[in-house]
Write a structure and sequence with these properties.
Largest sheet: 7 strands, mixed
Radius of gyration: 18 Å
Helix content: 25-40%
CATH superfamily of the largest domain: HAD superfamily/HAD-like
Bound molecules: magnesium ion
CATH class of the largest domain: Alpha Beta
Order of helices and strands: EHEHEEHHEHHEHEEHEHEEH
CATH architecture of the largest domain: 3-Layer(aba) Sandwich
Shape: globular
Length: about 260
C-alpha cells in the first residue's frame, strides 16, 4: 500500500469518470496517465460496492489503492478504517418493518434479481451480482409520489437511516457521506493538494471539502445547484460530460499546481 501521497484525486464514477450510458472511461486515459506519472493517488468514490470497485481498480491500474464505497458508508484499502458489518441486514430489516404503503414503492437492489438489475442498468449479470454484494447501504428506485416518499424517508429516519438521491438511484444508509470517508483518507495521507470530481448532489460535500472541486456536466442526471465555491473558483464546471470532461479538468488542475 502507498503510504504517502502529496496529491489525491477523489472521483465519483457513474456520470463522472464513467460515461453515464456506456460506463466507459477510456476518454480519461490522458489524465489517468498524467496522474500516475505525478505519483498522485486516485481514490474512486462511488455508490458502488467494494466488489464492483475492485474490478474497476484492476482495469485502471489502481489495484490495492484505497477507495470510498457505497457512497461513503465504507472505505477499502485503509487498514485503520473501522468496519461496520451488519449494517445492511439492519437496513433491510428496517425496510421490511415499514407499513406496506410506504414499503411498496421502494424497489431496492435486495428486492430484485441480478438478472433484472442487469436488464435495467445495462450491467452484465456478473457485474449485477457484484452490485448486489452490499454491506452498508441500499440503492433503489422510488415508484411512488413525492408525499409518500417524504413519509417513507421520515419513517426510516426514525430508525437511524437516511435517503440520498444520486445520479441514478435513491440510496439508503446511516448517513456517512463521501466527505466523511474523504476526511479519514486526508487525515491518513496528509496530502498537499486535493481535487474532487462529481456530477450529482451526493457529491456536493466532497466537492466542497477538496482544495478544488469539479462538477462534471451530466445532461441526464439531477442538477447540482449553483454552489458557494463557484463564486471563488474553488469549484468549477466542465463543459464536456463524463470521462472527456473529467480528463480535461484533471489535466488543467495538474498544470496549475505549484511546482514541486
Ligand atoms: Mg455520479
Amino acid at each position: 500500500m502507498q503510504e504517502r501521497a502529496d496529491l489525491i484525486v477523489f472521483s465519483d464514477l457513474d456520470g463522472t469518470l464513467l460515461d453515464h450510458h456506456s460506463y466507459r472511461w477510456d476518454a480519461a486515459t490522458p489524465a489517468l496517465t498524467a496522474l500516475a506519472d505525478r505519483g498522485a493517488l486516485l481514490v474512486l468514490s462511488s455508490s458502488k460496492t467494494a466488489a464492483e470497485i475492485e474490478v474497476l481498480q484492476d482495469t485502471m491500474g489502481l489495484t490495492g489503492a484505497p477507495a470510498i464505497v457505497e457512497n461513503g458508508a465504507g472505505v477499502i484499502g485503509l487498514p485503520s478504517h473501522p468496519q461496520s458489518d451488519g449494517v445492511y441486514d439492519e437496513l433491510r430489516a428496517a425496510l421490511e418493518a415499514l407499513p406496506a404503503q410506504l414499503r411498496a414503492p421502494f424497489e431496492g437492489f435486495g428486492d430484485i434479481s441480478a438478472r433484472t438489475l442487469a436488464q435495467r442498468t445495462g450491467l452484465s449479470v456478473d457485474a449485477a451480482i457484484k452490485a448486489k454484494a452490499r454491506r452498508f447501504s441500499e440503492p433503489g428506485h422510488w415508484h411512488g409520489d413525492a408525499a409518500t416518499r417524504t413519509a417513507f424517508l421520515e419513517a426510516l429516519g426514525a430508525k437511524g437511516f437516511i435517503g440520498r438521491q444520486g445520479g441514478r438511484f435513491l440510496t439508503l444508509s446511516k448517513g456517512r457521506t463521501k466527505a466523511d470517508a474523504m476526511a479519514d483518507l486526508v487525515a491518513f495521507y496528509r496530502p498537499k493538494h486535493t481535487l474532487a470530481l462529481g456530477d450529482a448532489p451526493n457529491d456536493i460535500e466532497m466537492l466542497e471539502a477538496a482544495d478544488h472541486g469539479v462538477i462534471v456536466a451530466n445532461p441526464d442526471g439531477p442538477d447540482i445547484p449553483r454552489l458557494e465555491g463557484e463564486g471563488s473558483q474553488q469549484i468549477q464546471r466542465t463543459t464536456l460530460p463524463g470521462p472527456a470532461g473529467w480528463s480535461n479538468a484533471v489535466l488543467e488542475w495538474l498544470a496549475h499546481l505549484p511546482p514541486r
